[in-house]
Amino acid sequence: MNVLFTASESYPLLKTGGLGDVVYSLPHALNRLGLDVRVLLPGYRDILSQLDDIQITGWLSVQGAGRMHDVRILSATHPGFELRLWIVDCAELFDRPGNPYLHPDGYDWPDNAERYAVFSRAAAMLAMDVLESGWRADVVHSHDWQTGLVPALLSVETHPPRTVFTIHNLAYGGHFSHDEFMALKLPGHWWSGEGIEFYGGFSMLKAGLVYSDVITTVSPTYASEITTPAFGYGMEGILQANSHKLHGILNGVDTSVWNPSSDPFLTAHYSARRRNPGKRKNKAALLSHFCATVTDRLLSAPLLGMVSRLVEQKGVDLVLEIIPELLTRTNANFVLLGAGHHHLENRITDLSRQHAQRVFSHIGYSEEVAHQLEAGADIFLMPSRFEPCGLNQMYSLLYGTLPVVNDTGGLADTVVDATPANIANRTATGFVMKAPTAQGLLEAVDRALDLHANTRLWNQLQRTAMEQDFGWEKSALEYILLYKNGHAA
Ligand code: ADP
Ligand code: GLC
Q1: How far from 56 is each of 83, 85, 118, 217, CA to CA, in Å?
Q2: Is 90 exceeded by the pLDDT of residue 415?
Q3: Pocket lining: 409 vs ligand 1, CB cutoff 6 Å
Q4: Are 160 and 128 in contact (CB under 8 A)?
Q5: Are 111 and 93 in contact (CB under 8 A)?
Q6: How many CA atoms lie less than 13 Å away from 461 in the CB half-sphere?
Q7: Which residue's alpha carbon is at the smallest distance from atom 1 of ligand 2?
Q8: How far is CA 297 from the centre of its chain?
Q9: Closest-CA residue to 144 (of 162, 115, 120, 170)
């Protein structure tokens, strides 16, 4: 079966969040199960500079916003990516540095509608093998709003491949104006409530929902949450109407990248059976990244960590709100890695300046520090207001860094709360908040700190957490069923 993945980012070439992790790990898992998967990405400057063995597959003339673009389709390899990559190379749209979606000053690129419409048009053409390369997609699997137009464009073809559209985050709808719709020369009949029109503009995400054969999202709980107004971002009605084709499939973890017994970024390796000496060495190494001297006292105090995009979704503000009280009342210390909204970055920096011996921060993006923090912290904070799946809480479980999470989306599907009953039956793996508030977070952190002081129980939870199986195979098999039948089982 030939599957074309169309997405706007992929680890290790370019990643801004969990989408990049999934676009790397799921195709590799599918490939191991015998599928022929090709991954198509935009030719951003940072991607082009990393490619090897570049071959020109062909040229396409693609409609943009009031102009045509000459697009080169490249086929290439990357040392960290086992499958062959396809790249949509269009310098005017993609040869820009840094974050793929944002201008260096932090605002969206003003031509994002055109950039991802051109990318999606090229993707649809390649899926239909217009270049006559001999490879035609049986299934096109598109991800998030940037590729929402792909199923829509294929829906007007005579014998289109099956289209699967995955929602990684409904908060980003790819909303654009009527003028942009007109300039892009999208089919006029799409401009309706049943089509892609959305409150006077149009949404590329909605295009994916309406015109795909199958919709998936990245956890069962999020699949049901998004059919309600609280989580639906205005799409709940469309999702309810399409619930027959909506499936929640939990993301997996690629243990060749996230594995404490082989992770190349760690100072010491460790496993579920032999944890403590290794974890302690990683904690010392992490702390020495921030402090000149790592005292025994610092090393023994509980260390609470967070790795996050600094956006409203993640509840970073809740963490910032409770830190002052925890600093006064407990001996816990904090280490935060993140980048995003400047006001959150500034609040974190201020707090770590005020409490230089107890709150440590790294503002920016660092794959290395992310791995070191997962290994070196004792407790991981993830009080997200909503979380489609969340990968960091799974990485934390596998690294024995017990997570404190809000009771939502993939967090609810992966973390088992340390209630007395779950501790007694040895299923507990973390701490689930009872309310999505600062008070709810404080209560869960207090429970975590109490349990941390009980070495025997802490060891039990750590071991259960590290023995969780988040391998991709089970989820990849669920995707294969959808690819084959258009429905589950
Ligand atoms: P989301 O995709 O919503 O950001 P996930 O938990 O699914 O949340 O995935 C986040 C991914 O991005 C993880 O691999 C995490 O380690 C990584 N990440 C987030 N922020 C940073 C950062 N500042 N530096 C390095 N990695 C980060
Ligand atoms: C999104 C979501 C996150 C999910 C990731 C990968 O960025 O916010 O919850 O884990 O996509 O699917």
Answers
A1: 17, 12, 18, 34
A2: yes
A3: no
A4: yes
A5: yes
A6: 31
A7: 168
A8: 36
A9: 170
> Hey, how many other C-beta atoms are within 10 angstroms of the C-beta on 483?
21
Tell how strand 201-203 and strand 246-248 pair up.
unpaired
Using a 6 Å cutoff on CB, does residue 18 contact ligand 2?
yes
CB 9, CB 42: distance < 8 Å: no
pLDDT at 197: 98
CA–CA distance, 452 with 173 (Å, rounded to integer): 41
pLDDT digits (tens, 9 = 90+) for 296-312: 999 999 999 999 999 99
What are the φ and ψ backbone dihedral angles of 63, each rounded to 5 degrees?
A: -65, 125
pTM, 2 dp: 0.97
pLDDT tens digit sequence for 219-270 = 999 999 999 999 999 999 999 999 999 999 999 999 999 999 999 999 999 9
Structure tokens belonging to residue 398: 């596998």
Output the CA–CA distances (angstroms, integers) from residue 184 to 67, 181, 188, 432, in the order listed: 8, 5, 11, 46
Q: How confident is the model at residue 62 (pLDDT cuts 50, 70, 90)?
A: very high
pLDDT at residue 207 above 80? yes
pLDDT for position 241: 97
H-helix segments, 184-289: 204-211, 220-225, 229-232, 236-241, 276-288
For the stretch 17-43, pLDDT in tens is: 999 999 999 999 999 999 999 999 999
Atom of ligand 1 nearest to the CA of 384: 3
Note the ligand closest to the C-alpha atom of 410.
Answer: 2
* 391 CA to centre of ligand 1 in angstroms: 8
Q: How many CB atoms sit inside 10 A of residue 230's CB?
A: 11
Q: Per-residue pLDDT tens for 105-158?
A: 889 999 999 999 999 999 999 999 999 999 999 999 999 999 999 999 999 999
Pairing between strand 201-203 and 175-176? antiparallel
* Domains assigned to the chain: 2-252+472-485 (3.40.50.2000), 278-466 (3.40.50.2000)
Three-class secondary structure of residue 220 per DSSP: helix
Contact 409, 380 (CB under 8 A): no
Phi, psi (5° rounding) for residue 136? Answer: -120, 140
CA-to-CA separations, 18 to 26, 54, 287, 337, in angstroms, rounded: 12, 27, 26, 15
CA distance 479 to 3: 11
Q: Considering every ligand atom, which ligand is closest to the CA of 308?
A: 1
Contacts 24+ apart (CB under 8 A), 151-154: 151/207, 151/208, 151/211, 151/212, 151/213, 152/190, 152/196, 152/207, 152/208, 152/210, 152/211, 153/120, 153/121, 153/124, 154/124, 154/127, 154/128, 154/211
Q: Which atom, in ligand 2's list, is nearest to the CA of 21?
A: 6
Instruction: Tell which residue, 22, 25, 33, has the closest CA to residue 478.
Output: 33
